[in-house]
């Protein structure tokens, strides 16, 4: 009988794993033999290593495209080995660095290719992945904000709809996220991070800094509209299942989510984390969101209630499209066909691209 943390991970995140690149059979096989949460990271790392080895083997044969596909799959599996595994930081970080390495190996061979970038911030750097659609000079760009437990190595499936419609994507690890989590803690004023990213975008000559969209998933669905309230260079914003006020729902969060937030916000106790969570709120700034806003929420969401999206839709003063899925779970990953292409089409319209 799996312990409560294994059950929580399977129950809350199974559709996310599969929709973001983990083969269904891999998910079934790895989780079927898991009963103890301390074994989670090692089990997923073992499966990730198999995909990494497949990539190495076909690369040695000269099949670079296939190698990139295998390494991207390995990166996603390594990511899910570490995503909320904060009880053993050394083991988590080892898996994380393998995820980063696999994705980096894949980047030159993706279609379109990716570029690993560094964005200066507060004496350190955010690490990101920039991808540009083929054949388009100075495309508009979608800046992608990660959530509490997501990182840029997970975003290949999220990037593809935008790339296919002529938009560049920039997925980056901000404070408390991915490669930044070891140097920078979570911060509620995420607009500061996005400001630095947009400053960096403006120094690029290969993307159109006059057409910047913002996208955020889960807790990133708070970060993105929060940034849009303050950063007027953003022309449109997508919020996927983000909280309106993180602290109000603290007691209903599962154990893994609460502990991950505590660690990545650098708080000593759960009480400290609960108090710090109150700094992640849109209460005093949602009315400043004037750019077009696309909100996705699922009525079956057990992590962030769908009513948080409704609150945001009512508070923002710009044009709002609120897509509420009656049968959608958190981020509606169980119904991705109901919002992934639709939200990318919406963003393409906002950034002035011809419809495909």
What distinguishing features does this structure have?
43% helix, alpha/beta, single chain, de novo design (two linked rop proteins), Rossmann fold, eight-stranded mixed sheet
Describe the structure.
This protein is α/β, with parallel strands linked by helices and 356 residues long. The protein folds into 2 domains: 1-110, de novo design (two linked rop proteins); 112-356, Alpha/Beta hydrolase fold, catalytic domain (Rossmann fold, 3-Layer(aba) Sandwich), CATH 3.40.50. Helices cover 43% and strands 14% of the residues. It has helices at residues 4-19, 24-32, 40-60, 64-82, 89-106, 156-164, 191-202, 220-230, 255-264, 270-277, 307-315, 340-350, and strands at 114-121, 124-131, 141-145, 168-172, 212-217, 234-240, 293-298, 320-325. It has an 8-stranded mixed β-sheet, sandwiched between helices. Strand 5 (212-217), helix 8 (220-230) and strand 6 (234-240) form a beta-alpha-beta unit. Helix 4 runs antiparallel to helix 5 and helix 7 packs across helix 8. The mean pLDDT is 97.
Helices and strands, with pairings:
Elements: H1 4-19, H2 24-32, H3 40-60, H4 64-82, H5 89-106, E1 114-121, E2 124-131, E3 141-145, H6 156-164, E4 168-172, H7 191-202, E5 212-217, H8 220-230, E6 234-240, H9 255-264, H10 270-277, E7 293-298, H11 307-315, E8 320-325, H12 340-350
Parallel strand pairs: 3-4, 3-5, 5-6, 6-7, 7-8
Antiparallel strand pairs: 1-2, 2-4
Helix pairs in contact: 3-4, 3-5, 4-5, 7-8, 9-10
């Amino acid at each position: 009988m799996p312990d409560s943390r294994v059950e929580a991970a399977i129950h809350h995140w199974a559709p996310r794993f599969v929709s973001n690149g983990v083969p269904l059979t891999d998910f079934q096989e790895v989780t079927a033999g898991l009963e103890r949460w301390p074994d989670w990271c090692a089990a997923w790392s073992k499966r990730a290593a198999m995909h990494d080895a497949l990539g190495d083997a076909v690369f040695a044969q000269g099949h670079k495209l296939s190698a990139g596909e295998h390494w991207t799959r390995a990166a996603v599996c390594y990511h899910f080995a570490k995503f909320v595994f904060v009880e053993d930081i050394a083991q988590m970080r080892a898996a994380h660095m393998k995820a980063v390495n696999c994705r980096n190996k894949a980047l030159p061979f993706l279609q379109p290719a990716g570029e690993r970038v560094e964005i200066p911030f507060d004496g350190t750097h955010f690490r990101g992945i920039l991808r540009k659609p083929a054949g388009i000079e100075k495309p508009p760009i979608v800046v992608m904000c990660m959530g509490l437990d997501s990182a840029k190595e997970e975003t290949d499936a999220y990037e593809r709809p935008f790339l296919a419609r002529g938009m560049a994507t920039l997925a980056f690890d901000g404070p408390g996220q991915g490669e930044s989590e070891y140097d920078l803690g979570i911060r509620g004023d995420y607009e500061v991070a996005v400001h630095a990213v947009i400053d960096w975008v403006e120094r690029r000559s290969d993307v159109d800094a006059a057409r910047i969209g913002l996208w955020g998933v889960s807790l990133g669905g708070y970060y993105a509209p929060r940034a849009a309230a303050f950063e007027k260079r953003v022309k449109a914003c997508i919020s996927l299942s983000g909280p309106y006020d993180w602290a109000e729902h603290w007691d209903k969060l599962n154990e893994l989510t609460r502990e991950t937030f505590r660690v990545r916000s650098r708080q000593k106790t759960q009480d400290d984390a609960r108090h710090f969570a109150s700094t992640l709120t849109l209460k005093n700034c949602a009315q400043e969101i004037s750019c077009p806003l696309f909100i996705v929420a699922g009525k079956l969401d057990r992590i962030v209630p769908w009513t948080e999206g409704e609150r945001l839709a009512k508070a923002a003063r710009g044009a709002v499209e609120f897509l509420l899925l009656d049968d959608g779970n958190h981020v509606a990953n169980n119904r991705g066909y109901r919002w992934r292409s639709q939200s990318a089409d919406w963003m393409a319209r906002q950034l002035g691209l011809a419809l495909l």
